[in-house]
Amino acid sequence: MWTRQRAVVGTTLFTAWALLTLMGTPTAWAQCPTIGDAVELVQPALTLSVVRDADSTACGGVPAAWECHAADGNPVPGLRIGVDAAGNSYDLASNGIIELDPGPIHRGFLLERLNKAGSSEIIARLFTQVFLGGNATLTIQYGTGQFQFDAVNGRILIPVYLRPDGIASCPLTRYGLIEISGLPQMFDTLLTFVPSGQSLTALTPGLPDGFRSADSLQVWAGDVATLPDWSQATPMACPASVSPAPGQLVNATDTLPDPATGRARYYVVAGQNGTHRRLGRQYINGIFSARNPALLPVCAP
Q1: pTM
Q2: Alpha-helix runs per DSSP H in the chain
Q3: How far apart are CA 252 and CA 94, in angstroms?
């Protein structure tokens, strides 16, 4: 559910390989390699971030940091990592550690995504060895089966062990945790409002309102003073979309005037599957529960 107010839509940038450009044989480095240099994204819609970056002291506590297992060795080729909320599966390419560019400068794994139609795409390169020039080499390990897939929040957590060789001024080893985010999430339909265009946009999740799929999405509006009496809701788009696909943006025009001073309006999306209709979740007294759509009027086109 969404109440009318101004919203700011941000843009997330990602950082890819950031070491110095190789120009002949380097003799000095402007900065030491970091945990973030271990992974390079291929898909610009995803985001790469470093959750933790620490030296070997991170592995001396009880319990030790989870990423300390990365020093145990690299995962096997073809490792299954997980399945996202839209049904796409993720794994390490089965051809194992390969040369990722001529030279090579980088060796490592390819992280791929397989969609439900059977098409695969590379989403990231995981370096295991980087030749920095001269005697300088970067060795990286990820542990055996230590990847963690978070289908609820749409992210992959990767433990990293990094060792620079031949760079005397840099720490001997680094341990850290990398996050790849921006994958489909398991959430209720996300409804946003653009004041300038007087329009509503709904993002269809992988499991709309818990259904395996939605036959249609319906958009309703009402005075917040009447909540939770759904019989007072007014249909705005019936339906707003028919058989929307996961990740599809559904648009609905808001023709209602702005609420009077001191009043507020809510917008809510209902999902229909066969004869069943759901209205998302509510959060009352610290507990999530399903909203009861029984009083919601029939949404006639």
Answers
A1: 0.62
A2: none
A3: 44
